[in-house]
Hints:
The complex is a heterodimer of chains A (280) and B (248). With 280 residues, chain A is α/β, with parallel strands linked by helices. Chain A has a single domain (39-244), classed as Rossmann fold (3-Layer(aba) Sandwich). Helix content of chain A is 54%, strand content 12%. Chain A has helices spanning 3-8, 12-28, 39-50, 68-84, 99-112, 131-139, 141-144, 182-193, 206-214, 224-235, 240-279, and strands at residues 56-62, 88-93, 121-126, 171-176, 196-201, 221-223. By secondary structure, chain B is mostly helical. Chain B has helices at 3-19, 27-64, 70-78, 91-122, 147-163, 173-213, 222-240; strands at 128-129, 135-136. In chain B, helix 1 packs across helix 2 (27-64), helix 3 packs across helix 4 and helix 5 (147-163) crosses helix 6.
Amino acid sequence: MTLSEKMLKIDRRIIFLMIGLCTLLPLLYPVGLPIKISAEVRGVYDHIESLPEGSVFFLSIDFDPASKPELYPQAIALLRHAFRKNLRVITLTLWVSGTGMADQIVTNVANEMGKEYGEDYAFLGWSPGGQAVIINMGQDLYSAFPSDYSGKPTKSLPVLEGVRNLKDVTYMVSLGAGRPGVEEWYVFGKDKYKFEMGGGCTGVMAPGLYPLLRSGQINGLIGGLRGAAEYESLIGQKGKAVAGMDAQSATHVAIIVLVIMCNLVYFSQRRTSRAQGQLG
Amino acid sequence: MDATIFGAWVATGLTLLIFSFLYKDTPLFKFAEHLYVGVSIGYTIVKTYDTVILHLIIKPIVENGEFALLIPVAIGMLMLTRYVPKAAWMSRYAFAFIVGMGSGLAIPRTISSFILKQVEDTVRPLLSMAGPDGLTFSMNLLNPASNLNAIIILLGVSSVLFYFFFSIEHSGAGKAVARTGIMFLMISFGAGFGYTVMARMSLLIGRLTDLIEFSDASYGRPTIWLALLTIGALVFISRRTKPASPEV
C-alpha cells in the first residue's frame, strides 16, 4: 500500500483528535493573535456610538441555545455597548426555544451594568407568529405584546414611553440563527416601517446576508464568533469571543493543511492510476 | 447542591456523551440525543401553552371579555378536523386562510426587498462623476462601492443567470459565458463552505470553553470526573460488543 493510499484510508478519529487538539491547546495557552476590525462590524458599532442618550434601541434575540457559542457573545457585547451609551433597550425574541436564554442574557448584562428593569430596559418575551408579530409591532407594539415576559402590562413600563410602534424605534439589531431572523426583520420591519437596522448572524448565514449589506438594506453585519470578537474589541471588553479567536485561527490552519494534503494525495493517485492504465 | 454547580455537571455530562459519537455510535450518545430532542420539544410545548393558550387566549377572554378572540380560535380549531376523516374538509378553510394571508403578506414585501432592491444595487453606474474632473473609474477591489466591483457584480449576475438559462445550447460564446457563471458559483460555494467551517469550529470552541471552565475546583471538577466515567463506559461497551466470529 502506497503512502497516498494509506492517507486516504486514515481513521477519521485521528482527524477528529487533531482538530480537537488544535482547538483545545490555544484555549489553554492563548497566543493573543491580533483582531482586525471589519467595515461591516464597525457599521453597527459606529451607528450605536452615534445615537444620543435615551434613544430607543431594539434588540431581537432570534436564536436558541444551539447557536449560543456564536450569538451569545454578540448579544452580550451589543447590550454592554447600548447600556453604556444609556440607550433605552427593548429586547424580545421570535424563537420560543430561546426565551429563557434571552431573559438570562438581558438580566445578567443589565445587572452587571447597574440598570433597572422597566426604567432602562425591558424584555418583552416571545409571541407566536414570526413575521406576523413584526407586522403587528409595526402597527401597535402593545397589541403584539400586551404584557412583558414577567407578565407586567407593557403600557405601564416607563422605558416604552413615547414608543407606539416600530416607527418610533431609533435603531434595531436582529441576532438571527435562521428564520425568523435578520431577513424577516428587514422584509416585514425595516422595509415597511423605515427604521435603521443592523444584523448579527451565525457564520453559516453570513454569506447569504452580504447582499443586504452591500445594497445598504442593513447598515452593518456581525458574522459569527469572529464578528463577536471584533465587537468585543471595539467596546474594549474582551470576553469569550476574543478568547476563542486563537483556537479558531489554529483550526482554520489545520483544515487548510488537510484540504491541501487531500488534493495532493488525490491528484497523485489519479496520476498513478492513469500511468498504470497506459501500461496495461 | 447549588443550581449552577448542578447545571455544570449536567451540561458537562451531556456534552461528553454527545462527543462520544466521535469515537463511535453508542447507547451513551443515543441517550443524550434522545434527551436533547425530548427536552427541546417539552420546553417548546410548555412555553407555547403558557404564552398562547393562557396569556393570549384564556386570560383576555376571561378577564377582559375579549370575545372576538374566539374567531381565530375557531379557525385554528378547524385544523384539528384533519384527524376526523368525515369532517376533514373543514380544515381546508383554515389552510385557505393561512395560505391566503401568508401569500398576501409575503409576496409584495419579498418582491420589494429581494428583487427590486437587489436589481437596483446590481445595476450601478460603471463610471462615476467626480466634480470638475469629469468621469472617473475607481479600481479599489476592497471598496464595495468601487466601479470595478460594480462591473464584477454585473458580470457575475449575468453569467450565472445565463448558466441557468437552458433554452440555448451552451456552445461557442455561450459556453464561455456559462463557464464564467460556473466560476462565480464555485467562488460563492467556497465562501459558503469557509463560513460553514468557521461556524462549526465556533460551536466546538464554545463547548470546549465550557468544559475548561467546568474543570475548575469551584464546580467540583465535573469535566475530569465525567470524562473518566465516559471513557470507562466506552471501554466497557467496546468489550461487551465483541465482533461476530466468522462462520465456518
